[in-house]
Amino acid sequence: MAREAPEPIRSIRSALVRLQRLYRSRNTEPTSTLVHTPHPWTRALGLATVVLLGAWLGLLIVGSVRTPVGPMDTSMTLRPSLSGGTKINVSPLGALELDSHVAPIRLDVDVDQLDPARSQALVEHPERISGLQEEVAHDVSDGTTELAVRSCVAVVSGATALGLAVYRRPRRALAAGGLALTLLTASGISAYATWNPKSVLEPKFSGLLSSAPSVVGNARSIVTEFDVYQQELARLVTNVTKLYDATSTLPTYQPDPGTMRVLHVSDIHLNPAAWHIIASLVEQYGIDVIIDSGDTMDHGTAAENAFLDPIPDLGAPYVWVRGNHDSGVTQAYLSRLRNVHVLDDGKAVTIAGLRIAGTGDPQFTPDRSVVAQGDPAERMTGIRLASALRDQKRAGTPADIAVAHNPVAARETDGEVPLVLAGHVHHRETEVLAHGTRLKIEGSTGGGGLRAVQNEKPEKVRASVLYLDRTTRRLQAWDEITLGGLGLTTAEVSRHLPEENTPGATPSPSPGSPTPSAALTALPRGTR
């Protein structure tokens, strides 16, 4: 009895049969004396379908190479993609995504295993590490060259074979192969033209690798030690080797001693899971201070106050400003807790050498008996905060960070402080304002709170780790931590650098500079 073909093969076979029937129905002479000629657009669409499907099948079947990269055995594959980029799969630890290029093809690199002989050689002869960057660059160059040649053969063969199966005419089959080669060449040119070797500065981690952000070095080391792409790639390979060598024990993150670490959280909205997440991040990153930009509560009632009791045991000083869901009752209760610093009306506090000033939200929206005053009230609060910042600057104690719940109020501090933090909108935004102040808006660390169960999709949990230079107290880099919302178990860490901190960039103006046109924007603004 004949063995039935697998489902994907049967699907491809049926698609080929339909293409053949369509082509024959368009090109077979009918019994009548009239000859029907297919419309040019129909023929072009059919040929494009054959080219794309054939090229994809060719890449799927033979478009990958196995190549050694340093001490590791890898598989490199080109895949069709709308956004391009490079994805490095480090099974079973997770994956690393780099925005390396923009093209309709993506480079997938699967780290299969460590080669025992090469790994042992590195352990026994550590002096070989110094030459690892050249070895890795050579291995990657050889692998990508072989992959390019194999991919060309794969797409041409696949498109030609499918064209011959559909059209049964050699000329059309060769035309399909030629078009497939042209398409791949154009994609390669696009990838080359948009190649971004500095994409390793902002990797995106997923899986267990999100627990090891040091896989490409700490933020300060990235800024001061980054030279060329090959060197950073060599460091990546070396650190991944260490991860494998450690088996189930991931390396501990070792922060630079000259870097202060601030954890920015916001809009917890009574989600008790947030405290466990914050405590874990404090321990993992060695956080110096936690800054909460408000809306810790939902209704601001006295009955909710017990929710705040875990804060003193989070492992770091807790700086808090009132949000529009936090009442005066909430603020009074927090002010009595150990290790908590409540800021309002421009009050400032110095923690770990970092001076932080802030103000509470002027509106308490759960109180339906009071009509909300909207953005005008927020702007006035921001203006008062800016005035307090100027007074502190004149007194010789300038603030390093300002905090307000609503971004409308935070924007009024432009030019008075290097960095201002806000929340409220439940999504992230980062922007350098006209006079040099960087505005960072955090998403909801509580995933929108317990009310998120009412939404069709769970809201993600967001927090950020900010790295500041201990001497200048300026932002050097930040990690954006994103976790799956209620019922999800995904994790992702994205590292970002201000544009003025990337190698070769021109420093941005200090707050208050008279040349606002030179202000740099690190990330595009989101939409509310």
Automatic annotation (TrEMBL):
Q: Which Pfam families match?
A: Metallophos
Which stretches make up the Calcineurin-like phosphoesterase domain? Answer: 260-427
Q: Where are the transmembrane segments?
A: 44-65, 147-167, 174-195
Coiled-coil annotated spans = none
Q: Could you tell me which residues belong to the region Disordered?
A: 496-528
Print the keywords alphabetically: Hydrolase, Membrane, Metal-binding, Transmembrane, Transmembrane helix
Which terms does the UniProt entry file under GO BP? lipid A biosynthetic process
Give this protein's Gene Ontology molecular function annotations: metal ion binding; UDP-2,3-diacylglucosamine hydrolase activity
Q: Which GO terms describe its cellular component?
A: membrane
InterPro entries linked to this entry: Calcineurin-like_PHP (IPR004843), Metallo-depent_PP-like (IPR029052), Metallophosphoesterase_sf (IPR051158)
What name does the UniProt record give this protein?
A: Calcineurin-like phosphoesterase domain-containing protein
